[in-house]
Amino acid sequence: MIEVDVTRSFTARPRRRIAGLAATVAAAGLLLSACSSDDTASGGSSEAAEDFQAVSVQLSWLKNQQFAGEYLAVEDGLYTDAGFPEVTLTAGGSSATSAEAAVASGQAFVGLSSPLITAPAIQSGAELKIVGATYQLNPFALVSAASAPIEGPDDLAGKTIAVSDSNTLVWNAFLAANELDEADVTTVPLSDTSMLTTGQVDGFIGYTTTGAAALAEAGFEATEFLLADNGLPMVGEVLVTSQQAIDERPEEVKAFLLATAEGWRAALDDPERAVDLTVNTYGKDQQYDADAIALSFDRQATLIETDETAANGLLTISDELQEGTIASLGFAGVEIAADELFDLSLLDEVYAENPDLLS
């Protein structure tokens, strides 16, 4: 049984339909595994419940600012408006079920993940597709001291860089993308950021949401550059669903994407509320520092909103970004075609049917 960390439930209520939403959708079985009685929505209007089923979303990590858009979609009733009587946000973590496994097994309708994980799962036979991406730029960054900055790949020769086991694949892909020989750079295991602050290493691979800005806030002047701007233009925090859902439940997928896009618009427009919900509601058990989460949210916003999302909309993935992601995966030794990994057709329909999303 998957342990579900549910912090909020909500009551189904009359809702606004998205354009083109079918009046009824055939009920396809979706297993929702839960261990807490808190995940059951209370009574109220049954109109929304008659359209779609309650669904679960498998998050990629513990409940932090990465999922603020989903929090607001729940809190503001956007998922209810879209037709779901209940949406359960299931926390991830090092010991949690992966998004790919949860979606493939039917335990989750949608999962949040990384192309570096989703693509190999598809190659192994999982019938999954990426249908959107929260991050237009992946969050990986190389962090170094401001007093001895590493400003780009050309500065790496002879340096010692700390890399965690979980980031080894992306590090090796970055080296390959920039034609750097592994022998030119000394790579050591990353324990924590003190390896940089105490001078044990010249830099480390981390996330921009908790990278140089966080160190500077703590009193250590640091700088960083994004791997996305230096050979790895790969999307991040991708939304994954099953091919079966795309084929048999397209209106539900569209409804979920619409509500999630609206949730992220609300979160980006009101970062203080997004941080408050993260710290005091959804991530309350993690005892987050509000200032640290606010800093991470600000950095995260630069990954989510770009010139491309201004033109195409939140969650979208342009043809260029799809190609960049495929190329980045190739540097990681993962060979897959764009049409095997992505299906943006339903998100395209969402924006065609709801042009106000771009206003």
UniProtKB/TrEMBL annotation:
Regions that span the bilayer: none
Domain SsuA/THI5-like: 64-274
Cited Pfam families: NMT1
SUPFAM superfamilies xref list: Periplasmic binding protein-like II
Keywords per UniProt: Iron, Metal-binding, Pyridoxal phosphate, Thiamine biosynthesis, Transferase
UniProt GO MF annotations: metal ion binding; transferase activity
Alphabetical GO biological process terms: thiamine biosynthetic process
Domain of life per record: Bacteria
Annotated metabolic or biological route of this protein: Cofactor biosynthesis; thiamine diphosphate biosynthesis
Claim: Protein transport is one of the keywords in the record: no
Catalytic activity: N(6)-(pyridoxal phosphate)-L-lysyl-[4-amino-5-hydroxymethyl-2-methylpyrimidine phosphate synthase] + L-histidyl-[4-amino-5-hydroxymethyl-2-methylpyrimidine phosphate synthase] + 2 Fe(3+) + 4 H2O = L-lysyl-[4-amino-5-hydroxymethyl-2-methylpyrimidine phosphate synthase] + (2S)-2-amino-5-hydroxy-4-oxopentanoyl-[4-amino-5-hydroxymethyl-2-methylpyrimidine phosphate synthase] + 4-amino-2-methyl-5-(phosphooxymethyl)pyrimidine + 3-oxopropanoate + 2 Fe(2+) + 2 H(+)
Function: Responsible for the formation of the pyrimidine heterocycle in the thiamine biosynthesis pathway. Catalyzes the formation of hydroxymethylpyrimidine phosphate (HMP-P) from histidine and pyridoxal phosphate (PLP). The protein uses PLP and the active site histidine to form HMP-P, generating an inactive enzyme. The enzyme can only undergo a single turnover, which suggests it is a suicide enzyme.
PANTHER family, per database record: 4-AMINO-5-HYDROXYMETHYL-2-METHYLPYRIMIDINE PHOSPHATE SYNTHASE THI11-RELATED (PTHR31528:SF1)
Family named by the database record: Belongs to the NMT1/THI5 family.
Assembly: Homodimer.
Protein name in the entry: Thiamine pyrimidine synthase
Organism the protein comes from: Cellulomonas pakistanensis
